[in-house]
Amino acid sequence: MTAHAPPPHAAPNAASERTERWWHRATGYQVYPRSFADSNGDGMGDIPGITSKLGHLSDLGIGFIWLSPVYASPMIDNGYDIADYRNIAPEFGTLDDMDHLIAEARERGIGIVMDLVVNHSSSLHHWFQAARASRDCAQHDYYIWRDPAPDGGPPDDARAAFGGPAWTYCEEVGQYYFHFFSPAQPDLNWQNPALRAEIYDMMRWWLDRGIAGFRMDVISLIGKDVDARVYEEGPDLHPFLQEMHREVLAGRDVLTIGESWSVSIETGLLYCGRDRDELDMVFEFSHIREGWHPELGKFAPKPFDLVAFKRALFSWQDLTREDGWHALFLSNHDLPRQVSFYADDRAHRRPAAKTLATVLHLLKGTPFVYQGEEIGMTNARFERIDQYRDLETLNHFEEQIAQGVSPEAFLAGANRNSRDHSRTPMQWNAAPHGGFTTGTPWIQANPNFGEVNVEQDMVHSDSVFAHYRRLIALRKESDLVTFGHTVQLMQDDPDIIAFERRLGDERLFVIANFTAQDRERELPPELAGQADCLVCSHTPRGEIPRFLRLVPYESLAWKL
Ligand code: NOJ
């Protein structure tokens, strides 16, 4: 058992007969280290920078940080390409800095959840360096190698997620290796028990340093069968997760969140169902994919469809009503800024940012805040491709331009959906580069930092930060918010999200206008009457009327 955050009383919870865990009432906060706070002026965020901002996070009330990778890495994919799992990238600091961060965070009741990237390593990891030099070393089989096809080409025509073929030839050994992402990220061969033992050992090593758990990168890929061309949720996924649980996690009061782009409501409880002994929850993306073009993908997004979005969101509320648990998020380092994607980041930025939070934080599950979301940071809207840094955006630009897409059309898609929008520097104040660095940032700051920044938001009467703080505190205090089950209302309404949470006799009613116009709705008669307004984006109202008129992006939550 680690001693990161004080686990609250372990009490069986009436709603699900599940023992309460410390993370049930906690809110997570994702830190993308290279863009959070730079302590030494090299233009790159770092671990001492994060430690210096713990006051901000503790003020917000979060229970744990999900820390994107800080390990030694050539940074081809900003750290999601790890060259040494037991060391820190020098640009981010040292292991001592990491231990200091863990200890300082623990002092404030904040756990550190590390990113575990074990579907693949960096091609610079010493395992791969040995593996590519000879077929006769133990590490060769730590990766996935296949002989060339009879014509000397790759074994099949699988494509990599970041563009190009998924197989790269290695002359020294006369074989191709498999990489789901870029050639710099060779996939690890989970079929090899010695490799799995190395990973489990490394995980224990981090847990023994006092971290609070792991967010597991693209974890559904580890059970793949490349010969059958089954990559996601392959036949060995769940046996491997159960083994990992037995070997590493059993008996430790830590949190595990798996990232999965393939999990569905059919497979969700296989990961996090009661008695599965695998993970605590999964990040699933059905509500996110809803915003993507069905054939052309994320760089050609389609207009936002609230009804389809609600269908995806609430299907997971239904799934986890009695069993399992859900990870709630709208933003992360791979996604655009939520206020830009789902709402209006100009005329209605503040209310829209609050309303997105009202809805997400009052659902059942563990909510995650992505850095900057708590002050309503927006997409950057770059004008030229050379302002982007993300390899996914840059590779897809090249591929799509070669296929005849115009640069303007690609940039329009990238300005809506590129991963770089969430990676621009955190905006702390109105100083150059938003106070993120005294040097030159690795990626340009969003030009709106003078107007959108932490200092400015905190003193604003309409503070987005204060709204988040209220929601985060409410979850800690309220069994209804934490454990109540969710009942969706107005499913087919294209403009409104409305739902109830119910626990015993207690009821919470939440309603939000997702448009830039006023909207009036007739409410069910049993809801009308005096009620305690717990949360509002504009002004509180002490009564639920029969006919409710909401101004643009207004949201309210009442306890009945
Ligand atoms: C998912 C991570 O969130 C993303 O940033 C990364 O590029 C891929 N996995 C590959 O590790």
Explain what this protein looks like in three dimensions:
By secondary structure, the protein is of the alpha/beta class. Helices cover 27% and strands 17% of the residues. It is built from 16 helices and 24 strands. Strands 13-12-11-7-4-3-15-14 form an eight-stranded parallel sheet. The protein has a five-stranded antiparallel sheet with strand order 16-17-18-24-21. Strands 8-10-9 form a three-stranded antiparallel sheet, with no helix packed on it. Strand 16 and strand 17 form a beta hairpin. Helix 11 packs parallel to helix 15. It is globular. It starts with 11 loop residues before the first strand and ends with a strand. The N terminus is likely disordered. 1-deoxynojirimycin binds next to loops.
Features:
560 residues; alpha/beta; 8-stranded parallel beta sheet; 5-stranded antiparallel beta sheet; 16 helices; 24 strands; 27% helix; binds 1-deoxynojirimycin
Derived from helix and strand composition plus strand pairing, the structural class reads: alpha/beta
The major pleated sheet works out as: 8 strands, parallel
The tally of strands reads 24
Alpha plus pi helix count: 16
The proportion of strand residues reads 15-25%
Strands of the widest sheet, in order across it, are: 13-12-11-7-4-3-15-14
Poorly predicted ranges? 1-16
Shape: globular
Question: Rg from C-alpha positions?
Answer: 23 Å
Q: What is this structure's SSE topology?
A:
Layout: E1 12-13, E2 18-19, E3 28-31, H1 47-52, H2 54-60, E4 64-67, E5 71-72, E6 84-88, H3 95-107, E7 111-116, H4 126-133, E8 145-146, E9 167-170, E10 175-178, H5 193-208, E11 213-216, H6 237-249, E12 255-259, H7 268-272, E13 281-283, H8 286-289, H9 306-319, E14 327-328, H10 338-342, H11 349-361, E15 366-370, H12 391-402, H13 407-417, H14 454-459, H15 464-477, H16 479-483, E16 485-489, E17 496-503, E18 506-513, E19 519-522, E20 529-530, E21 532-536, E22 543-544, E23 547-550, E24 555-559
The structure holds 1-deoxynojirimycin.
The site of 1-deoxynojirimycin has 9 residues, from loops.
